[in-house]
Automatic annotation (TrEMBL):
It comes from the Bacteria. The lineage of its organism: Bacteria, Pseudomonadati, Bacteroidota, Flavobacteriia, Flavobacteriales. Keywords: DNA-binding, Transcription, Transcription regulation. This is Transcriptional regulator. GO terms for molecular function: DNA binding. It holds the Pfam family HxlR. It comes from Leeuwenhoekiella nanhaiensis. The keyword Repeat does not apply. Residues 14-113 form the HTH hxlR-type domain.
Amino acid sequence: MENSEKKFADSENCPVRNVLDRFGDKWSTLVLLVLDDTKVLRFNEIHKMIDTISQKMLAVTLKSLEADGLVLRTQYPEIPPRVEYTLSERGASLIPHIKSLVQWANANFEAITQSRAAYKK
C-alpha cells in the first residue's frame, strides 16, 4: 500500500498525470486531430476549423503542443510572414491512441449522458 501511495503522490514525476495534463485539456486533442486530418495548416485555418476557440486560447494551445514536441511550427521568411503548423513524429504517434479514445467516447456517450442525468436527480 505504501508504494502505491508514493507512486501516485508525485504529480510532477508521474508520466501519466504530467503528460495527460498537457494534451488532455479542452482544445489540445481537437487541435491534434485537426492537424492529423489536414496535415499542414496556418493559424487562421485552424481557427476557422475550430471556430469556438478564441485566438488567444488557440495560440496558447499551439505553444503548449509545440513545447511538448507534438506540433511543429514552421515560419517562412516572407513578407508578410507565413507560419504553418503540422504534427511532429511524436504527435503523429499519439493519434491512434486519441482515435481509440474518440471511438470509445462515441460508443459510450449516450450511456454516460444518461448516467449523468440520473446522478443529478
